[in-house]
Amino acid sequence: MKVYVIGLIQVLIWSTFSLVTWLSRSDSLFAKGILLVIFCYLAFLIANKIGLTRKSSFLITFISFLCFFSFEKVFWAFT
């Protein structure tokens, strides 16, 4: 159940990241990279604080990151 809750929270985090990058279109790639690192760290910290081990937190964060942005690319390719 913890993994499911963490997955949902991380989808919200990645959605917020997408919204922020969309709103800041004129920012440089470096600034967007820093934002990505901050959001990844936030997602990792939340997973770790809910009760997963560091390894599990990293794995869940990485999987949710890959899934969200893969689906986002597929969605934007069809629209």
Q: Could you please describe the fold and organization of this structure?
A:
With 79 residues, this protein is mainly alpha-helical. It has helices at residues 2-23, 29-50, 54-78. It is 87% helix and 0% strand. It has one domain. Helix 1 (2-23) crosses helix 3 and helix 2 crosses helix 3.
Overview features:
single chain, 79 residues, mainly alpha, 3 helices, 0% strand, globular
Show unreliable segments: none
* Range of helix content: over 70%
Domain count, please report it: 1
Order of helices and strands: HHH
* Largest sheet entry: none
Rounded mean pLDDT is 93
β-strand number: 0
Rg (CA only): 13 Å
Question: How many H/I helical runs?
Answer: 3
What is the strand content? under 5%
Shape: globular
Structural class: mainly alpha
- What is the distance, rounded to the nearest whole angstrom, between the alpha carbons of the first and last residues? 34 Å
What secondary-structure arrangement, pairings included, does this model have?
Layout: H1 2-23, H2 29-50, H3 54-78
Helix pairs in contact: 1-2, 1-3, 2-3
Outline of this structure?
The protein is 87% helix and 0% strand. The protein has helices spanning 2-23, 29-50, 54-78.
